[in-house]
Specification:
Blueprint: E1 5-8, H1 20-34, E2 38-40, E3 49-52, H2 57-68, E4 72-76, H3 81-84, H4 91-106, E5 111-114, H5 117-125, E6 132-134, H6 151-158, E7 166-170, H7 179-188, E8 193-197, H8 207-213, E9 220-224, H9 228-237, E10 240-243, H10 252-259, E11 264-267, E12 283-285, H11 288-299, H12 307-316, H13 319-337
Parallel strand pairs: 1-2, 1-3, 3-4, 4-5, 5-6, 7-8, 7-10, 8-9, 10-11, 11-12
């Protein structure tokens, strides 16, 4: 009898490759291989479980096909109605339809996985009755580590001086990500440099976001999408990671920043409750006035940086630990099928 085999369905991987979901899929694959889980990305091969990470029609049809053939379906719930809002043009109008669709997808699953207790509570609130387990997307803490040797070359590339204090953020050009607040803070703090990594085609975003990314400030840079290696250098070379997002299911870039030991300021939203403590691991703020105060305090060395606590929280969610949990869930499903 052969070992359990898992289909990581990846037809839409390229579409989401520049998003957190794409990064999660990439980490899943590598981490599960390290756990000797037999994987395939080819749906023509035989398999016992299909693991789905996206909610495109092809994913739904793959789940239906697997169910017809007696296979187990694992659906990773990275998306919610709440984090769909305030993203693309028209997203608020279509959010109820999006909720209906993701429920239709997730309800095909024998097991739903979701990154945090917060996102699990949202799914339960939708009325989904399928089994739901919480499993962090994880972060490779060996890969995302502080490297002071990157500082000089990074700053030279982007035209920053050695003495500049740099505030960074990472995300798509979504209002939900707090990009309007980031631009406003850059305007209020001309003594610091602000740089945003990430990109969304302008035709897909509302006018106020388009206007924001074209704001002409000498201390504001939109660097666009950069590969992972460049982002690692940014975490090691900037002085503060500011993530003013209004809604997340977890926030992979937050884990990367924590792992890289850069001071982190977050918006005080429910997703971080019970695993990131204000004043121990990160600093949390409710509005731009509070962000303004905390940014000054950190960059002027008036309060502790909290990077050791942040690194500990990242290690608790190391991707290899999450792979062990995932392997356990796969095995439990196969035993039910036996």
């Amino acid at each position: 009898m052969r070992e359990m085999k898992v289909l990581l369905y990846a037809k839409n991987e390229k579409i989401v490759s520049r998003s957190g979901v794409g990064r999660a899929m990439f980490m899943q694959k590598n981490a599960l291989k390290s756990e000797q889980v037999e994987l395939t990305c080819d749906p023509r091969e035989d398999f016992d479980i299909v693991h789905l990470n996206t909610v495109f029609p092809s994913d739904y049809h793959m789940a239906k096909k697997a169910k017809r053939e007696g296979k187990k379906v694992v659906y990773h719930a990275h998306s919610t109605k709440e984090d769909f809002r305030n993203s693309f043009v028209g997203s608020n109008l279509t959010a109820p339809l999006f909720k209906w669709w993701i429920m239709k997808c997730y309800q095909m699953a024998d097991l739903i996985l979701t990154p945090t207790e917060y996102s699990k509570s949202l799914l339960n609130g939708y009325g989904i009755k399928n089994p739901i387990e919480v499993i962090s997307n994880g972060v490779d803490t060996c890969e995302f580590q502080k490297n002071v040797l990157d500082r000089e070359s990074f700053r030279r590339k982007y035209g920053f001086r050695n003495e500049d204090k740099i505030v960074m953020s990472v995300g798509l050009y979504f209002e939900r990500k707090g990009i309007l607040d980031f631009v406003e803070l850059a305007g209020r703090m001309p003594e610091y440099q602000f740089i945003w990594f990430g990109y969304t085609p302008e035709l897909q975003i509302p006018k106020k976001v388009r206007d924001a990314i074209h704001t002409d400030l000498p201390n504001l840079t939109f660097a666009g999408y950069v590969p992972k290696e460049e982002l690692k250098k940014a975490y090691s070379s900037c002085d503060l990671f500011l993530f003013p997002s209004y809604e997340e299911t977890e926030g992979i870039v937050v884990l990367e920043a924590l792992s890289s030991q850069i001071p982190v300021i977050l918006r005080d939203i429910p997703v971080y409750k019970n695993w990131l403590e204000d004043g121990r691991d990160v600093y949390k703020c409710k509005n731009n006035d509070e962000f303004w105060v905390r940014v000054h305090q950190i960059l002027q060395c008036q309060i502790p940086l909290l990077t050791d606590g942040g690194r500990m929280r990242a290690k608790e969610r190391d991707v290899l630990c999450q792979a062990k949990k995932l392997k356990y869930y796969y095995s439990a499903l196969c035993k039910k099928n036996a």
